[in-house]
Amino acid sequence: MARLLRVGDVHIGYGKVEAVRGVTLDVADNEIVTIIGANGAGKTTLLNAIMGVLPLRGAVSFAGVDLARLEIEDRVAAGLSLVPEGRELFAAMNVEDNLRLGAFRLGTASATQSLERVYTLFPRLKERRRQLTGTLSGGEQQMLAMGRALMGAPKLLMLDEPSLGLAPIIVADIFRTIGELRASGVSVLLVEQNAQAALQVADRAYVMELGEFVLEGPAKDVAGNARVAESYLGF
Ligand code: ATP
After folding, report:
1. Is the C-beta atom of 39 inside 6 A of ligand 1?
2. Same domain for 103 and 188?
3. Same structural domain for residues 235 and 132?
4. Which helix (H) or strand (E) covers residue 12, if one does?
5. pLDDT digits (tens, 9 = 90+) for 176-228
6. Euclidean distance between the first and the last CA atom of the chain, given in angstroms as a whole number
7. What are phi and psi of 88, to 5 degrees?
8. 234 and 170 inside one domain
9. Where would you tag: which of 5, 62, 180, 203 has the fewest CB atoms within 10 A of its CB?
């Protein structure tokens, strides 16, 4: 499988505090990779730096291009997309207008095609297309945030805690959709505290503690690791 994202020995700091210390990670085409770890381990910091929201030290390349030289909008154009933990939707706009914002780079015909793709993935959004975003349930808002990120037809979707605050039945729905994304040719880099759900859907996993990866491997092996089971799966 071709490597899509390569992160090599990356360090990220807030002033003098190093929140991420020398991590190396890769994501291949058609792969779901998860980073699990406790609160404050540095997962969000890493996603933000890959997107270009935070500066980093080290090497990051995407589809063979060195990201150091690219601004955020160029990273989006190259096929990277981030759904942040806070979802950052426009509450006073309806569902479809929020989605269309995700396709601002595309022409009208491609935007309409993207919209149909997103509605196929999330039929609930189609039903609610004229509803004000602020009145959606938490699960619907998460679907909308993912849908908006998919409107630009990314090659890699980075998801920060998609399950946060959602009921288990909705979490199952979101994770099923993540599996469907891989089938449609989108790779996923998933940051989650819900380790159990993340390890079930992912191909490979990294375990992050205090800014470093302490374990990595096929998701099945990571789930079977005694320390992971005790610390993150509650066994
Ligand atoms: P969470 O699930 O809580 O978001 P996380 O694994 O994503 O956890 P980060 O949010 O990346 O962790 O935080 C990593 C470390 O960096 C923590 O020690 C945190 O306190 C610190 N940190 C995060 N944001 C800032 C900031 N803006 N300024 C200073 N320190 C920060």
Report:
1. yes
2. no
3. no
4. strand 3-14
5. 999 999 888 899 999 998 999 999 999 999 999 999 999 999 999 999 998 88
6. 34
7. 50, 55
8. yes
9. 180
Q: In one letter, which amino acid is 180?
A: E
Domain count, the chain: 2
Residue with tokens 């092996």: 221
Half-sphere exposure of 231 (CA within 13 A, CB side): 15
Read off the pLDDT of residues 169-185 as tens digits, 9 standing for 90 and up.
Answer: 889 989 999 999 988 88
| 33, 188 Cβ separation under 8 angstroms | yes
CA atoms lying within 13 Å on the CB side of residue 94: 9
Binding site membership of 19 for ligand 1 (Cβ less than 6 Å) = yes
- Looking from the CA of residue 15, the nearest atom of ligand 1 is 29
**Closest ligand 1 atom number to CA of residue 45:** 11
Asked whether 133 lines ligand 1 (CB < 6 A), one says no
40 lines ligand 1 (CB under 6 A): yes
**Domain limit, last residue, from 136, 153, 170:** 153
Q: Which of 153, 180, 198 is the last residue of a domain?
A: 153
Q: Which residue has the tokens 């297309």?
A: 129
pTM, whole model, 2 decimals? 0.93
Q: What is the largest CA-CA distance in the chain?
A: 52
Give me the residue label for tokens 């994501």: 27
For CA atoms 215, 219, 221, 223, the dihedral sign is positive
